[in-house]
Amino acid sequence: MADTMKLYSYWRSQASYRVRIALHLKGLKSETVSLDLIKGDQFDAAYRALNSEMVVPTLIDGAGPPLVQSLAILEYIDEAHPQPPLLPSDIRARAHTRALAQMVAMDAHPFVVPRVRKYLEQELKLDEPTRAKWLRHWLEEASRSVEETLARHPRSRFCCGDQVTISDVCLVPHFVTAKMLCGVGLDAYPTAQRIFETCMQMDAFAATHPLKQPGAGSH
Predict the structure, then answer these.
(1) Distance from C-alpha of 159 to C-alpha of 164, rounded to nearest angstrom
(2) What is the side-by-side order of every strand in the sheet holding 67-68?
């Protein structure tokens, strides 16, 4: 693998935030290439050659094919750099950890990304209040599901025990996105809020926050 990875990212991208957190947790350095998804940088032919979906993130690591899809990238990083582990050793716990991560990364996030928001506006001609209602619905559905699941084991420091896992790596960006897009806080989700606040005390989560990325605050 190359000494320095290259991460194609967008400052507000929830999926890119997940990868930044994981890289930081593993102590891995990466060069960040910032794309502006609102301006359409992702449609450039050179980037499309790297990622046919024309989304972020894309991780370049050595001579192999580009790595895409944040959950797949997280597991790649964890397998290539096993310490500290991002998945529990117990197979049942691993399934639970993946399920929590997927509640936000697969069941909510795809509904609120820029290309979906653009389609709602330009193709379906939905006005801004209706689009905002759409975003809030899917973000709150995921938040509720995660909270109810976490509340069954309320004494864990993190989502799945006392070590950070991919579920925490996905939980924090979800709630950051909910706040930035819709102003949705965590007061209604006390278990998730406690875990979120614990994570944000760690540099891996705080230093990689979207508002600390190149281009932050635009659009």
Answers:
(1) 8
(2) 30-34, 5-9, 58-60, 67-68
Handedness of CA 173, 162, 207, 95 (dihedral sign): negative
What burial class does residue 43 get, using C-beta atoms within 10 Å of its C-beta: 0-12 exposed, 13-18 middle, 19+ buried?
Answer: exposed
Pair 6, 73: CB distance under 8 Å: no
Which CATH code, of 3.30.420.40, 3.40.30.10, 3.40.640.10, 3.40.50.2300, is assigned to 7-84?
Answer: 3.40.30.10
The CA-based angle 100-164-75, given to 5 degrees, is 65
How many angstroms separate the first and last alpha carbons of the chain?
Answer: 35
Alpha helix positions (H), the chain: 14-25, 45-48, 70-80, 91-105, 114-122, 128-150, 166-182, 190-200, 203-206
Low pLDDT (below 70) residues in the chain = 1-3, 218-219
Phi first, then psi: give them for residue 31, nearest 5 degrees. Answer: -85, 130
Instruction: Give the domain ranges of the chain.
Output: 7-84, 91-206
Q: Could you give the CA distance from residue 174 to residue 195 in angstroms, rounded to a whole number?
A: 13
CB 163 within 8 A of CB 199: no
Q: Pick from 17, 67, 3, 186: which is nearest to 75 by CA? A: 67
pTM (predicted TM-score): 0.95
